[in-house]
């Protein structure tokens, strides 16, 4: 697999609209959420220190020169860099243009790549669209709190089962709403980057202990019988289900705000 680095962001954003033109299963929905572009950086544990030094120096340059905003999280595979694209394909064009201009005006980016590029094994890119109508947000939920521990459940849907999957997700949301679960869960559908239809359920917490408390609340208020019923329905139309954790890294992220 070809190695890709931060320096290739503009290239990836240029190619992505061509891939997206092949179609997207959720495009027909009336309410469109924002799209998020993710660059997943695979880094060996013994190279993580060097790679983080690269990101810190990259961030310093971005902070000084006003690069487009990006977020960073870490996981057991390495680092993920993500950017908010917006609701339409015009966001790709705008972001690609901004990064292209920024790279051109800051040759130091290329120098950092030459210095630290050996620390990266390979990179994979994907784009996900948030689906607000299939997400659960409890009344009065304060999204401004700092939540840096995130659990993600990825579900690869069997061919021809997208409509059924949407129905089942609606049942999950209804069950969570009825129970009044405290944590918010956001639903994202893959636009490109996965080999088949894939949906991700993302919930962020203040800590690992907060996630444990949330699981206990769900079991108590939703009930194991209902949980098993819903999980069984989703499993029956899925090829694979994987759960992972990630940790927000604001120390490596860049924002112009």
What this model shows, in words?
- The chain is α+β, with helices and mostly antiparallel strands.
- It is 39% helix and 26% strand.
- It has seven helices and eight strands.
- The chain has helices at 9-20, 48-65, 90-105, 108-116, 162-179, 208-221, 224-236; strands spanning 35-42, 71-75, 78-86, 122-130, 149-157, 186-192, 198-205, 238-248.
- Strands 1-3-2-8-5-7-6-4 form an eight-stranded antiparallel beta barrel, surrounded by four helices.
- Strand 6 (186-192) and strand 7 form a beta hairpin.
- The chain starts with 8 loop residues before the first helix and ends in a 9-residue tail after the last strand.
- The relative contact order is 0.19.
- Residues 7-30 have low confidence and may be disordered.
Number of strands: 8
Percent range of helical residues: 25-40%
Name the beta content range.
25-35%
Helix/strand-derived class? Answer: alpha+beta
Overall outline: elongated
Mean pLDDT: 87
What's the alpha carbon Rg, rounded to whole Å? 19 Å
| Total of helices | 7
- Order of SSEs, N→C? HEHEEHHEEHEEHHE
* Biggest sheet details: 8 strands, antiparallel, barrel
**Major sheet strand order:** 1-3-2-8-5-7-6-4
Q: Cα distance, first to last residue?
A: 36 Å
Low-confidence residue ranges: 7-30
């Amino acid at each position: 697999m070809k190695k890709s680095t931060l320096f290739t962001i503009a290239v990836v954003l240029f190619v992505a609209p061509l891939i997206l033109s092949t179609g997207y299963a959720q495009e027909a929905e009336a309410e469109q959420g924002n799209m998020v572009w993710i660059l997943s950086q695979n880094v060996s544990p013994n190279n993580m220190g060097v790679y983080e030094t690269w990101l810190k120096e990259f961030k310093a340059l971005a902070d000084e020169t006003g690069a487009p905003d990006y977020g960073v999280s870490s996981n057991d595979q390495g680092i993920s860099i993500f950017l908010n694209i917006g609701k339409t394909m015009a966001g790709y064009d705008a972001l690609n243009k901004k990064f292209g201009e920024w790279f051109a005006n800051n040759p130091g980016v290329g120098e950092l790549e030459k210095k630290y590029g050996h620390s990266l094994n390979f990179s994979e890119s994907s784009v996900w669209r948030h689906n607000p109508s299939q997400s659960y947000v409890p009344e009065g939920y304060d999204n401004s709190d700092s939540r840096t521990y995130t659990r993600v459940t990825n579900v690869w849907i069997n061919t021809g089962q997208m409509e059924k999957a949407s129905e089942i997700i609606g049942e999950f949301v209804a069950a969570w709403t009825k129970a009044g679960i405290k944590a918010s869960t956001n639903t994202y559908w893959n636009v490109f980057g996965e080999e088949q239809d894939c949906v991700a359920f993302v919930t962020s917490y203040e800590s690992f202990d907060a996630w444990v408390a949330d699981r206990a609340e769900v079991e108590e208020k939703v009930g194991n019988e209902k949980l098993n019923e819903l999980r069984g329905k989703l499993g029956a139309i899925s090829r694979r289900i994987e759960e992972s954790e990630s940790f927000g890294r604001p120390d490596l992220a860049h924002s112009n705000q």
